[in-house]
Amino acid sequence: MLTQSDESFTLPLFREGMSHMHTPQQRTCSAAARQQSPTAVNMSVALGGNILVTGTSRGIGLELVRQLAEKTGGGAHIYACCRDPEGAGGQALRQLSALHPGKISIIKLDVADERSISAAVEAVKEQIGASGLNLLINNAAINKPASPASLLTSGKKDMMEVFETNVVGPFLLTKMFLPLLQRAAKSCSGDKDGGMSCRRSAVINVSTLLSSIEKCPETFAMAPMYPYRISKAALNMLTCCQAENFRADDILVAAVHPGWVRTHMGGEEAPLTTEDSVLGIIRVLSTLSSKHSGRLLDWEGNSIPW
């Protein structure tokens, strides 16, 4: 099962034929990114303020916290959310926080539990004060059942649990954090850059290529994954609805596909390391504007059809 702490597995458990999921150009770009990464790790990005990331105990979430802590300026603060911050699952996150004193706050959060969401929102409110929340990254997700998650092997319980975490969780979290997002958008309204941006006020929903209805004929045979891909398609609709809903508040909302990432879930054949994927994601987030609100992009900034 894919836990809330690892959204990095966004492509199939079935690795045969996975080369079809990445064009030669994309694989070349991925290789180039890995060659550049030692230098790129030290580059600063156009992100800052208060940033909250869910599902941060490992995988993409943990790497997002690491790179954001390294690349953002002194005024940035990262709220890293996970279900078990004091237990074994939160060890890597605690170690990372110790490397950046005063820059990372670890928040206990189970996105499938409404009371946990409420408690996390209140905890962040107390720390943020009047400054607001500049960037919310809904990264936490689960995948059930285990491979192959076909029509015959997936049940009602699987579908409901996956939807609760992958769709209802981001829905409630964004809804409860909306006042803080609005506050950030208003406080930055006088900035010289103006307009929508992830530095001003934004919601990023981590989605997947498997969520694309148009691409389904190309991806389905390799990864049926009924609950997972259906939930992510629903997350895409949530992204579109939020983008329209928050447009008047100048809050940007977009979905991002992080690629097929080399983790214990993604397998050794995956073309992307977590470092490369997150490096790309952060670069993309740094360039987003109003024209990207309501869209699904990959880690290289390419548009993916709904």
From TrEMBL:
Q: List the record's Gene Ontology CC terms alphabetically.
A: cytoplasm
Known Pfam families for this protein?
adh_short (PF00106)
Which InterPro entries did the record assign?
Fungal_SecMetab_SDRs, NAD(P)-bd_dom_sf, SDR_fam
Q: Which GO terms describe its molecular function?
A: oxidoreductase activity
Q: What is this protein called in UniProt?
A: Zgc:158868
Species: Oryzias latipes
User: Lineage of the native species?
Assistant: Eukaryota, Metazoa, Chordata, Craniata, Vertebrata
The coding gene here is zgc:158868
